[in-house]
Write a structure and sequence with these properties.
The complex is a heterodimer of chains A (about 190) and B (about 280).
Chain A (H helix, E strand, L loop, with lengths): L10 H10 L4 H19 L2 H17 L11 H14 L2 H14 L9 H23 L2 H11 L5 H8 L3 H25 L1
Helix pairs in contact in A: 2-3, 2-4, 3-4, 4-8, 5-6, 6-9, 7-8, 7-9, 8-9
Chain B lengths: L1 H10 L6 H17 L9 H14 L17 H12 L9 E9 L4 E8 L5 E4 L9 E3 L5 E2 L2 E2 L2 H5 L5 H10 L9 H4 L4 H9 L5 H12 L5 E6 L2 E7 L5 E7 L4 E9 L5 E15 L5
Antiparallel strand pairs in B: 1-2, 1-11, 2-3, 3-4, 5-6, 7-8, 8-9, 9-10, 10-11
C-alpha cells in the first residue's frame, strides 16, 4: 500500500494517479477487493470467490487503459468484470441456490416467542427465496444481485452490465415480482 | 425493499480473510511486475503459472509494513495449474499403456508394471502371487468406482469439469467399492483415479484436475522433489498425500495409490508411478 494514495482520494484521482504510475493500481485492489469478494461469494461460494475476485483485478489491470472515467466509476466497472467471470459458472450458481433451498434449517424453538415466530418465518422463506433465485433468467439475476448483494444503484448496475438504466429497472421489477410472489404466498400460509 | 434485504441476507458470506486479500494482492503485483505474460489458457494459466513460479523462486518476506511480494501457492492452484498444463500435453502414441509403480520394499525397491492394449489385453510383472520378474498375461480390466471402464469410454468422457463430474456420477458403479462421500457425489477418488494411472485423454485429464481443484480441504504442504505435495481428503478420516507435478500434469507419487484396476496400494512413505504409451512389450 502506498503512502501516495489516501483513502479520501476519489476514484477519478486514483485513476489519474495509476495512469502515471501503474504500481498504484494496488490501491484499486485494496479499495474494492472486499466488495467484489462478498458479491462473488454470495453468488457462488467462498472458495471460488477468492479466485474470481483476484482474477477480477488482474483483468481490470490488463484492461485499465480501456476504462473510461467519463462513463462511470471504478466500482461498477469492477462489478461488471466480476459479473462476466461469474457467468462462466452459471450452472454452478443455479446449483448453489438449489442447495440453499434444500438446507431448510430446523426452526429455533427456544427463546422469546416473537423471536421464534420471526425466525421461523425467515427460515421458511429461505428455501423459496433460493428457489426463486435459481429460476430467474441470467439477466434478471445479474441486475437483482448487483443491486441487492453488491449494493449498486440503478445507474451503477447499468454501467456494470453495459445496458440502459431503463432495462435495469424493468429487469429488476420482473425479478422482484417473481420473488415477492413467493414471499407473499409464504406469509399468507405462515 | 424487504425482498432485496432478504436476498442480501440469504447470500451474505463472511468477510474475506486477511490471507485471501494478501494472496490476491500478491497475484496482482506479480502481474504488474511481470507485465503481460503469454496467455496459454485464456485467463487461467498466467495467474497460476506465475503464482507457482513466484512461490518457488521468491522467498516470501512478511513484514508489518509491506505486503508479501507473493503468497504461497495453494493446493487448489497447483491442481488448476496441472489442469492448464494437461491440455497442452500431446496425446501419446503406442500399442501399450505402460504403468510402472515403484516403492521401497523391506530390502530393495520394488517395481510393478503392466501393459494394456486398447482392446483391453493386459500383461503384468510382479503382481502379487506372480513369479517374480516374469511378464504374464493378466486380464484385470481398468475400473472406475468398482465398475469396468474401457479405453473408448475414457476417450468419450467430457472435457468440462462440471460435465465430467455429472457423467461420472451417472456411470455404472459398485457402491461397495466407493467411499460414503463419493457415493453422495463428492467423487474425489474416481477423479484421482482418472489423473493417476488411467489412460485418460489430455482434455479429460485437464477437466479432472480442475474438478478436483474444487474439492474443499485440499492443502499444499509445499514444494518437494518432482512437484508439490498435496493433501486431499478422501473421507472424514482419510487423507491422501500425493505429489503432483503441475508442469507435467502428473501424480508423481502418493501414499495411497488409487490404481487403474480399481485397487488401492498403501505405503508408509510413497509409491511412485509413471505412465506412458509404448510399442515395447518385454517378454
Amino acid at each position: 500500500m502506498s503512502a501516495e494514495v489516501s483513502e479520501q482520494m476519489t476514484d477519478a484521482e486514483l485513476v489519474a494517479r495509476y495512469r502515471r504510475d501503474p504500481d498504484l493500481f494496488t490501491a484499486v485492489h485494496d479499495r474494492y477487493y472486499r466488495d467484489i469478494y462478498l458479491y462473488v461469494a454470495g453468488r457462488l461460494d467462498a472458495q471460488i470467490a477468492e479466485d474470481l475476485a483476484a482474477e477480477t483485478f488482474l483483468l481490470a489491470f490488463d484492461r485499465r487503459d480501456r476504462y473510461d472515467p467519463e462513463r462511470g466509476d471504478l466500482r461498477p466497472w469492477l462489478f461488471g468484470i466480476a459479473t462476466n467471470l461469474i457467468a462462466r459458472h452459471r450452472r454452478k450458481e443455479t446449483r448453489h441456490y438449489k442447495a440453499l433451498a434444500k438446507l431448510g434449517p430446523e426452526p429455533v424453538v427456544e427463546g422469546h416467542e416473537d423471536r421464534v415466530v420471526t425466525s421461523i418465518t425467515a427460515e421458511r422463506m429461505q428455501p423459496h427465496l433460493a428457489m426463486a433465485l435459481a429460476a430467474l433468467s441470467g439477466g434478471e439475476r445479474d441486475v437483482l444481485l448487483l443491486v441487492a448483494l453488491g449494493q449498486l444503484s440503478y445507474d451503477e448496475a447499468a454501467q456494470a452490465l453495459g445496458i440502459a438504466v431503463g432495462t435495469v429497472g424493468s429487469r429488476l421489477s420482473r425479478a422482484r415480482s417473481k420473488i415477492l410472489a413467493l414471499i407473499d404466498k409464504e406469509n399468507a400460509r405462515g | 425493499m424487504d425482498d432485496l434485504n432478504a436476498v442480501a441476507t440469504l447470500l451474505a458470506k463472511p468477510e474475506p480473510s486477511t490471507e485471501a486479500i494478501t494472496r490476491s494482492r500478491g497475484r496482482l503485483q506479480d502481474r504488474m511486475t511481470r507485465g503481460r505474460a503469454r496467455r496459454r489458457r485464456g485467463w487461467l494459466l498466467p495467474v497460476l503459472g506465475m503464482a507457482v513460479a513466484a512461490a518457488a523462486a521468491v522467498a516470501v518476506i512478511v513484514t508489518s509494513v509491506a505486503p508479501p511480494a507473493s503468497a504461497p501457492v495453494s493446493g487448489r492452484d497447483v491442481l488448476l495449474m496441472a489442469a492448464a498444463s494437461a491440455e497442452h500435453i500431446p496425446r501419446g502414441t503406442g500399442t501399450y499403456w505402460h504403468i510402472t509403480r515403484t516403492w521401497q520394499g523391506p530390502d530393495a525397491p520394488q517395481v510393478q508394471e503392466s501393459w494394456t492394449t486398447r482392446d483391453g489385453h493386459r500383461w503384468s510383472r510382479n503382481e502379487p502371487y506372480a513369479t517374480p520378474g516374469a511378464v504374464v498375461e493378466d486380464s484385470a480390466p481398468f475400473t472406475l468406482m468398482g465398475a469396468e471402464i474401457g479405453f473408448e469410454e475414457l476417450e468419450g468422457l467430457p472435457s468440462d469439469p462440471e460435465e465430467l463430474k455429472e457423467r461420472i456420477a451417472g456411470l455404472p458403479r459398485n457402491d461397495s467399492a466407493m467411499t460414503p462421500a463419493d457415493r453422495q457425489g463428492e467423487l474425489v477418488s474416481p477423479l484421482i483415479t482418472l489423473i493417476t494411472e488411467l489412460p485418460t485423454p489430455p482434455q479429460v485429464r485437464s477437466a479432472a484436475f480442475e474438478a478436483l481443484a474444487a474439492t474443499p480441504g485440499v492443502k499444499n504442504a509445499g514444494p518437494v522433489e518432482g512437484g508439490q505435495e498435496l493433501l486431499v481428503p478422501l473421507s472424514e478420516s482419510l487423507e491422501i498425500r500425493m505429489v503432483v507435478d503441475p508442469e507435467a500434469a502428473r501424480v508423481a507419487r502418493a501414499n495411497i495409490l488409487l490404481t487403474a484396476e480399481g485397487g488401492s496400494a498403501m505405503s508408509n512413505s510413497y509409491i511412485s508411478v509413471t505412465t506412458e504409451w509404448t510399442d515395447e512389450l518385454p517378454r
